[in-house]
Structure formats: structure tokens, C-alpha cells
Design goal:
The protein contains two helices and no strands. The radius of gyration is 20 Å and the shape is elongated. It is about 50% helix and about 0% strand. By secondary structure, it is mostly helical.
Length: about 80
């Protein structure tokens, strides 16, 4: 279950990045800079976790994977 408590974090970004975020906010793609940064961080974490899971699966022998068809009598 996701934690609903939010913690303030200080981030330094280049002027170019801030302007690009501001453009998205102005076009109402995001409500605020903060919302964009939360989205970007969450998206990046999800991608990294997916990549990590793929690496783990690639390095796990088939007999240790859950749902192995051979284990249940299927070919």
C-alpha cells in the first residue's frame, strides 16, 4: 500500500528545465511544478523497478519462476 504522507524535498534545476516545466503548467498539463516533479520521479522509479525486475527474471532459472508450466503438467 502506498504511503500518503508527503515530505518536502529541495531540488535544484536548470533554468531551461524550470521553463519547460512552467510551459507544461501553463498549458495545464500539470497543476504545478510540484505535480510535474512528483509525476516525473514516480515515472522514473517505476521504470527503474521494471528494469530491475526484468534483470532478476532474466537471471532466475526457469524452475524458480512462479507459474512454471512444466511444474503444473503443461508443456
Amino acid at each position: 500500500m502506498a504511503e500518503n504522507v508527503e515530505y518536502p524535498v529541495s531540488v535544484r534545476l536548470s533554468g531551461y528545465v524550470v521553463r519547460k516545466i512552467d510551459e507544461l503548467v501553463k498549458r495545464r498539463e500539470f497543476r504545478s511544478r510540484s505535480d510535474f516533479i512528483k509525476f516525473a520521479v514516480t515515472l522514473t522509479l517505476g521504470q527503474l523497478m521494471l528494469e530491475e525486475a526484468r534483470e532478476m527474471a532474466k537471471n532466475t532459472p526457469p524452475k524458480h519462476l512462479r507459474g512454471n508450466p512444466r511444474k503444473h503438467g503443461r508443456s
